[in-house]
Amino acid sequence: MRTRRRPVIGVTGSHLMAEGTYAVQAAGMRNLEAVAEAADCLPIIVPGMPEASEIEELMQLCDGFLLTGGRANVHPSFYGEPPTEKHGQFDEGRDRVVLPLIATAIARGAPVFGVCRGIQEMNVALGGTLHPEVRELPGKMNHRMPPGEKDPEVIFRKRHKVTLIEGGAFARLLGTTEIVTNSLHGQAVMQPGPRVVIEGLAEDGVVEAISVRDASGFALGVQWHAEYGATSDPVSKALFQAFGDAARAWMAAKDG
């Protein structure tokens, strides 16, 4: 039995149709496991339902937020563009919860860690834009998963290098300026928001890691799926441990 309270991490949920008929709010098991095992925190799912998710209540309840990946993309109206077929499917309920939640959490110094869609949400919440299909840009690779693949070992295989800026938050945290990551996305950061610092680039120049200028707390985003292998992969483990440490510090400050 635990003798101490773990920090509570709000893990963003997504709208899905179970068996094609039943609407659910869900978060991937690997996200929950990464929070519980690598960050040593208590994960709870934040539903993407504006009518059920009050920002102030979430800020009081949670000691940090993990912004998860998901098939649906951020609706382009949130960064001033019209939707097209290339933008794919949307989850506007999640958008309406998560985007203001990010802005509030960062403003107050609560830990925020964005993964895949999460890095895109961070950029949009901070005034940036996204490209709907980055592989169509000149000189860019296909960052999507192999079509039709079902084997997680293949889907989440490390596929490309990411170069981190010297002296940046990631380079300091990881002790290196070059890592190898997995890649499972169609969209990517296009124009960074005014406070968004580009910390890492793939070999083709696609944005893979960001921090937030002048943020008073942990505020990092990665385009890859850091939740995969969070207890075994050195990069993922270091990121989630640092996120957990930040949540413990934030919890202690709130309790104090």
End-to-end distance, in Å?
Answer: 24 Å
Q: What is the CATH C-level name?
A: Alpha Beta
List the total number of helices: 7
Q: Which fold name corresponds to the CATH topology?
A: Rossmann fold
Described by the principal axes of the CA atoms, the overall outline is globular
The H-level CATH homologous superfamily, spelled out, is Class I glutamine amidotransferase (GATase) domain
Provide an overview of this structure.
The protein has 256 residues and is an alpha/beta fold. The chain has a single domain, classed as Class I glutamine amidotransferase (GATase) domain (Rossmann fold, 3-Layer(aba) Sandwich), CATH 3.40.50.880. Helix content is 29%, strand content 23%. The protein is built from 7 helices and 13 strands. The strands form 3 sheets. The chain has a 9-stranded mixed β-sheet with strand order 4-1-5-6-13-12-11-8-9, sandwiched between helices. A two-stranded antiparallel ribbon has the order 2-3. Strands 7-10 form a two-stranded antiparallel ribbon. Helix 3 crosses helix 4. The longest helix is centred in the last third of the chain and has 22 residues.
Question: Layout of helices and strands, plus pairs?
Answer:
Layout: E1 8-12, E2 14-18, E3 22-26, H1 29-38, E4 42-46, H2 55-61, E5 64-67, H3 92-108, E6 112-115, H4 117-125, E7 130-131, H5 152-155, E8 160-164, H6 169-174, E9 178-181, E10 188-189, E11 196-202, E12 207-212, E13 219-222, H7 234-255
Helix pairs in contact: 3-4
